[in-house]
Amino acid sequence: MSKLIAIGGGSGSGKSTLARNLMLAHQDEIAILSYDWYYRDRKGESEEEKARANYDEPKAIDAKLFLEDAKKLKSGQPIEAPVYDFATHERQKETHHVEPKPFVIVDGVLAYQLPNPKEVYDAYIFVDCPSDIRLARRILRDEEERGRTSSSIVLQYLSTVRPMHERYVEPTKKEATFLVRSDLRPTDEASLIEEIYALLKSL
What does the DSSP assignment read for the chain? Predict the structure, then answer.
């Protein structure tokens, strides 16, 4: 049996980094299941349609498939999660093999946007980060990893990322089991990892 722990927060807040550091510190007990792997496959859509799509609202994610996989992991079964290409907005033939471990970390902007999240997750960690830092990180990431221009990134941020964050993501902060600041020094981060791990062990 696996316990599922959601890590939420705005785009660029540091969710994936926190999830990865938790996993690296306790590899035998923690696995990662990224909610972003479950973006809907847009194969067959034109480039214009893909560009117009809102990727920051809950229906952009295949929540049904995610819940099927989450249920399998919680029951102790391994899964083959989808691989999503953010440059083409399409799923790949390859899969992410995820073995059930005592704790499975689910990171993603919309990770808590499920009909009954408390029935799925055993805890919710929210990474709090100022909007200017999140935007700067997003620009650097999307330019380097997704081949996008800074102007297109800022336009998307203003048109969908920011309003969807205010509508869907920020309100979930009050649901958090544990609130994390994103401006920690490396020495503080090490102690944070162990504090969160202690929280997981107490569940």
Answer: --EEEEEEESTTSSHHHHHHHHHHHTTTTEEE--GGGGBPP-TT--HHHHHHS-TTSGGGB-HHHHHHHHHHHHTT--EEEEEEETTTTEEEEEEEEE---SEEEEE-TTTT-SSSHHHH-SEEEEEE--HHHHHHHHHHHHHHHH---HHHHHHHIIIIIHHHIIIIIGGGGGG-SEEEES---HHHHHHHHHHHHHHHHH-
- Tens digits of residue pLDDT in 84-133: 999 899 999 999 999 999 999 999 999 999 999 999 999 999 999 999 98
Query: What does the alpha-carbon distance between residue 89 and residue 166 come to, in Å, rounded to a whole number?
Result: 24
pTM listed for this prediction: 0.90
Q: What is the CATH number of domain 3-202?
A: 3.40.50.300
Domain boundaries, given as residue ranges, for the chain: 3-202
The burial class, CB within 10 Å (0-12 / 13-18 / 19+), for 66 is buried
Burial of 127 (0-12, 13-18, 19+ CB in 10 A): buried
